[in-house]
Amino acid sequence: MVQVASKLLETELANRLAPAHHDVILINASTVREAEALIVSCEHCNEDGAEFPFLVVLDRVTGSDPKVTDYILEVPAKCPKCCREILEKTFVERA
Q: How far is CA 94 from CA 1, 10, 17, 37, 81, in A?
């Protein structure tokens, strides 16, 4: 009986902590280029100005809910200032 109650508690906690759903979106190359147009620099060339992770820009471009969305980039974005690769968690300065 104790083991059953423990399993029920474990299941209840998991249900309360887990989001109802989670989306993983593949971002194609053209959408990456669209998001690139909304940034001016990255954390590599502008440490002080890069305040937001690139995924914030992706949220804006895709209209997705940032609470339940992760992204996979088909190709990395490129910083318009220093040409380094930008991934989902790279900090950028928005235009």
A: 57, 42, 32, 9, 12
